Amino acid sequence: MLKRRRLIFSLLAIAPVIAIFAYVRLFPIGEILRLSLHKWDILSKNKPFIGLANFQELFGDRLFHEALINTSIIAFGVLVITVPLAMVLAALIFYRTRSRFAGFYETTIFIPHVVSLVPAAMAWKWIFDARLGPLNALLSVFGIEPQAWLFDPKLSLISVIILCSWQALGYAVLIYLVGFKNLPKSLYEAAKLDGASGFQSFWHLSIPLLKPISLYVGVATLVSAFNVYAQVYVLASDAQGAPGRQVRVLVLDMLENTFRNYRVGYAASEAVVLLVIVLILTFIQFSLLREKGARK
């Protein structure tokens, strides 16, 4: 009877939280799924059910293919840069700066993660400016000709990847620092007694032991990068002639179909595709972690 009362009390205690979560998170997902199966035009009162017609049109849409490819390039580019660099920076902070300045280094690296996206993107837009940007001025010192960072399609993608990596790095370093602080010191002491160098200990001990952290950081970074929007909208907008069409991403394509073309159902089908991508990445994360746990 006591256990039953505790169970009922626990359920009642968390019920408001579950209700709010369902309303804020689950209900919008269900609504998006419903809209994706309708020809939902803002300007029309008639919103007929059309089944999977939106998805059939979607996979034949050249602009959608372009947005999906660009988003994937940005996401995996950010992943390749962020994960190894964050691990190395976290190792340097943890092992080389065990002083009163360690907190300063951690704060400096983490600040870009909490800075508002729009001001940060505007600052980087100035850095990448073809005529007045300091990046081209720095390259000219080494004899490299100025580059049209925000005009060339490939360079525009690289610019967005750099900006997104800069913003994602702080959170990844913070997570890795937590991982380094929880590694068993006895293993490193034994490796040092056996004559292992610092690099050997990092390569053969830190990297394998931090595999769960790397999986989490990798998937979190990838999922976040697939939702890129503000960086592209500000950094690669048409204000300076940047190829907005060629830096088209999924979220930007959804907003354009919703508010410019008034095709809410079609945009909802794009959101469903993005949701499926996020779910697949999350499933891969849990599968890899479960596999590691089973081996243990």
Task: Report on the architecture of this protein.
Helices cover 75% and strands 0% of the residues. The protein has helices spanning 2-35, 53-58, 62-96, 102-114, 117-127, 134-141, 153-181, 185-193, 198-209, 211-226, 230-235, 250-259, 264-295. The model is unreliable at 239-244 (pLDDT under 50). Helix 3 packs parallel to helix 7 (153-181), helix 3 runs antiparallel to helix 10 (211-226) and helix 4 (102-114) crosses helix 7 (153-181). With 296 residues, the chain is mainly alpha-helical. It has one domain (55-295): MetI-like (MetI-like fold).
Report a brief summary of the structure:
With 296 residues, this protein is an all-alpha fold.
What order do the SSEs take from the amino end to the carboxyl end, as H and E? HHHHHHHHHHHHH
Question: Rg from C-alpha positions?
Answer: 24 Å
How many β-strand runs?
0
Biggest beta sheet attributes? none
Q: So how many helices?
A: 13
Query: Structural class, from helix and strand content?
Result: mainly alpha
Strand content: under 5%
Q: So what's the oligomer here?
A: single chain
Terminal-residue CA separation: 38 Å
CATH architecture: Orthogonal Bundle
Helical percent range? over 70%
Mean of residue pLDDT values? 84
Low-confidence stretches: 239-244
Q: What fold name stands as the CATH topology?
A: MetI-like fold
Name of the CATH first level: Mainly Alpha
What is the general shape? flat
Q: What is the H level of CATH, i.e. the homologous superfamily?
A: MetI-like
How many domain regions?
A: 1
